[in-house]
Write the structure tokens for this entry.
Amino acid sequence: MDIEQFRKAGYAAIDRICDYFHSLEKLPVISKVEPGYLRKLIPDEAPEQGEDFTKIAEDVEKMILPGLTRWQHPSFFAYFPTACTFEGILGDLYSSSLSNPGFNWSASPACTELEVITMDWAAKLLGLSPAFYNSSEVGGGVIQVSASDSVLVAVVAARSRFQRDHPDAKVEDMVIYATTQTHSLAQKAALVLSLQLRTIEVSSEDQYALQGSSLRAALEEDAGLGRKPFILIATVGTTSSGAVDNVPEIAAVLKDHPDVWLHIDAAWAGVAFSCPEYREQLYLPEINESAASICANFHKWGLVNFDCSAMWVRDRKLLTDALDYTPLYLRTKQGDEGTAIDYRNWHLGLGRRFRSIKLWFVLRSYGITGFQRHIRKTIDMNKIFVKLVQESKVLTLFTEPSLALTVFRITPQEGGENFSAEALSDLNARFFKVVSARDDIMLTQTSLNGDICIRFAVGSARTEERHIKQAYEIIEQEAAKVIEAWRQHQP
């Protein structure tokens, strides 16, 4: 493809993308293809001779689009949102056109320097302490692929620090701390690094959030057993219910255990720090004072297309001490002199994508007020859903709503007292199976200490009040049908 062919194909691609988003609301949320559908449509081998790109682009519409779950659909309320803005799309286009591995400053100075600057922009947007700014030259921020990568890097750095301070410590005695509501990233980090993981129980009475007393009890027990906890992954906005671990109490306990690194996983809820009215309830002041590292995914609720997981550390040297390996072919004048950041020492890989350009595009295009408006709007949309659930005769809230997330259950008000906890979980599992068979809405289920319930997460920039009300009508109608069917089959 030459320049003019690319120009023509590029114009056509933008037109197709615009047409797709223009019709998005009319498309099904969930793909109805069966596993293996694509193998029936695509040959077993690449073509011997090159094909015309117009035919290739047509096959995207014929073969690929039918197999997509539409995460940006206004009726997508599953998992957590995956951001997709036109600014982000254009950022990825520019990033791809300026392809380079960006592993150090000299590989492309603009790539490193834009990330340094935009991560400080993002830190200021979220109200993080200046200790986390790159401009502090002590702490700093870096864009990772995902929150799982951020946790893995934090665990590696925390392990290195602990082994430096306790050279006689045995790796088999070292323990990662998380809770029973921590994302699976904690388990994966332990698995990858062959470390022990302790999950501390959290209760419904505490809204599934870790409390200081539970942490202290675990630390005391492990001290008696000779175990060495070296990092705690605390969560601001858990996946199942949006719970916020009690950071003030956690920080108070860890003052007596300075060897334990406090990592804050705010992958979903972290972007809500951008709105000052939510900072206290999300414990931002205590995080600023006590956290060693923090992660917030702009590619979830934060308007930046995947991938853009923002990670900040209080002491960058702890990262580079753990991850720096510099053979001669990677040495540079700037690196040797310490005049520029080499981001290859801030993550596990060597090469890295030019992600900061799309963060730059989004923050410039939306501005702080536009970004805040998006966060507030989606929270307000969730409040509409909460009010409808509270007025329902077949639905109840299972936990306190958390920002733009609601967890609810089918709980019949008439005769509901005759349902055991097990029966209610079975009823909700049946409901989820029924609603999942539809293609005009998508939800996810979860289990909170054994109780099956349903999650409703608002986050798409395209979701309006009418979509919330339509979703509620579908949910209530299907719930009523499931309850009636259940009753008819009871002896």
